[in-house]
Write a structure and sequence with these properties.
By secondary structure, this protein is α/β, with parallel strands linked by helices. The protein is built from 9 helices and 7 strands. Strand 5 (127-134), helix 7 and strand 6 form a beta-alpha-beta unit. The model has no long low-confidence stretch (mean pLDDT 93).
Amino acid sequence: PATRVAALAAAGQICFGENRVQEARAKQCELAETPSLLAAAGQALPLQWHLIGPLQRNKAKLAAGIFQMIHSVDTLPLAQTLSAALMQGESLPILLQVNIGRESQKQGVLAEELLPLLQQVAQLPGLAVQGLMAIPPWTATAEEARPYFRALARLAQQMAAEKIAGVCMNELSMGMSQDFEVAIEEGATWVRVGSALFGAR
């Protein structure tokens, strides 16, 4: 809830990840309409919102307007829709989601299909590809997730070596509440620790 966001902002957290576009919009509106929430938290800096969940094309225009980064771009049509939603001169940082465990139930581009997608997305105006995101298969221990994190980091290095204009591979979004320490050891720059901070949904 927005009240919990405000409470965490009081502790100095300014970046928040959301799985659903509409939920993020509702919380943003509540915080904007109830400035006392953030005022009470002593929050001076503007909050940043990242979309870490799947994005449908019919919500891409709204997402482009309310998120400062989108972690879950995995198809060319989605990237094209996001690009078309931007005003001339606007730039939207994005990460390409990789299905690092090759799981049929998960979104993300397969590793062998990443380079062609990256080359095409790089040509779209307004989209700034800054790295990769992945959600590894569930593992019983954090250590068992390490090979997946390492594979994503290696993939980012391979993409960086291609030296595609307008693309950088500085960001790796990987690791959640149960395994973020291992993800950081393998190069994560963004960790998604919602359960650790807020508890279960």
